[in-house]
Design goal:
Strand order of the largest sheet: 2-1-3-4-5-11
CATH superfamily of the largest domain: Response regulator
Shape: elongated
Largest sheet: 6 strands, parallel
Order of helices and strands: HHHHEHEHEHEEHEHEHEHEEHEE
Structural class: alpha/beta
Number of domains: 3
Strand content: 15-25%
């Protein structure tokens, strides 16, 4: 059986995109890598299929980026970072907006694979329903078989699938944030979580609860939103009148909604109720009071995912690439003295 591009890539220890670059000769590749590829080509007696290469070249200069909502700064930052790296590799990035629909996510991945894209980056949390995870795993398997790179950015891979995952420390960041609120003297702490059945929601809620458990504190209340500002506003309205001194939101947009609702009800932040968020979006430092939150390296993670999907960076070690979370202490959480 004739050697394939994937066989050459495996022998040389590089990605199929790198082999294509060496064959096409129109992308920068280091001399050492180029020599390894040429050695593998010779060892495997690889013969370039001219018509096939022309067809692939016409359809492989694209990477797809799956986002939940491109108008949400959390996703727009990631889309921008990934697109920047794609452009740096002379590739076109196609941004696919699912609006949170699991079926649309599957549809867009299928459409991208029909276009024989070079890579696909899936951002944000994933739905945790077994049926959806099986469907995603099947599509990823099809992508890898076709030589399309798949990279997870901020979400875990489906069970049994080993692809590069740029992972943010959602659980550790949430634990550190809740610990800070506790050290500020708060014991009656409500939590506004994201949508149930979402991997990001699950990780952040787990970190929050583990910090409460460490200090023997029972959750005052847990209300689920959908990561939007409006759902944070509604959650705070539901919590008004509850016996809480602090509200932690599962992301910054919901935290901004919480602050707006409390202000509307004449409740001062942080004098009456402290508020914290998560993500450290650009608006977090400009709101009054400035928002205590957790900073995730969204741009850094997205850029790395873009480089991997574009074939610029090859992952040779562990496929889970952890990026740390950083606690950002600002004015929206005040010390409780009572």
């Amino acid at each position: 059986m004739a050697a394939t591009l994937a066989d050459v890539a495996a022998r040389a220890g590089v990605s199929t995109a790198t082999v294509s670059r060496v064959l096409n000769g129109n992308y920068p590749v280091s001399a050492v890598t180029r020599d390894r590829v040429h050695r593998a080509l010779g060892e495997l007696d690889y013969v370039v299929n001219g018509p096939a290469r022309a067809l692939a070249a016409a359809t492989s200069e694209v990477i797809g980026v799956i986002v939940n909502d491109v108008s949400d700064p959390f996703f727009s930052i990631q889309a921008s970072g990934t697109q920047w790296e794609a452009a740096s590799a002379d590739l076109l990035a196609v941004i696919c907006n699912t609006a949170g629909s699991p079926s649309d996510e599957l549809k867009y991945i299928s459409l991208l694979l029909r276009q024989r894209v070079r890579g696909v980056v899936l951002t944000g949390g994933t739905r945790e329903e077994p049926e959806h995870l099986r469907a995603i795993a099947k599509l990823i398997g099809q992508a890898l078989s076709a030589g399309t790179a798949v990279v997870m950015c901020g979400r875990p891979a489906p069970p049994g699938i080993d692809v590069p995952c740029v992972a943010f420390d959602n659980e550790g960041g949430a634990r550190a944030l809740t610990r800070h609120v506790i050290t500020m003297g708060h014991r009656r702490i409500a939590y506004v979580a994201g949508p149930a059945g979402n991997s990001t929601t699950t990780a952040r809620l787990k970190g929050h609860r583990s910090a409460l458990d460490e200090h023997g504190i029972e959750p005052a209340a847990v209300v689920h939103g959908d990561f939007s500002r409006a759902s944070g506003f509604d959650a705070a309205m539901e919590l008004v009148g509850a016996d809480v001194t602090a509200i932690i939101a599962g992301n910054d947009l919901m935290a901004l909604g919480v602050i707006a609702a409390l202000r509307q009800r004449g409740i001062r932040v942080p004098q009456d109720i402290s508020v914290a968020g998560f993500d450290d979006l650009p608006s977090a430092v400009d709101v009054v009071p400035a928002l205590t939150t957790v900073r995730l390296p969204l741009d850094q993670g997205a850029r790395r995912a873009g480089r991997i999907a574009s074939g610029v960076e090859t992952v040779t070690g562990p496929t889970k690439l952890w990026l740390p979370a950083e606690l950002m202490v600002r004015d929206s959480v005040a010390k409780r003295t009572e």
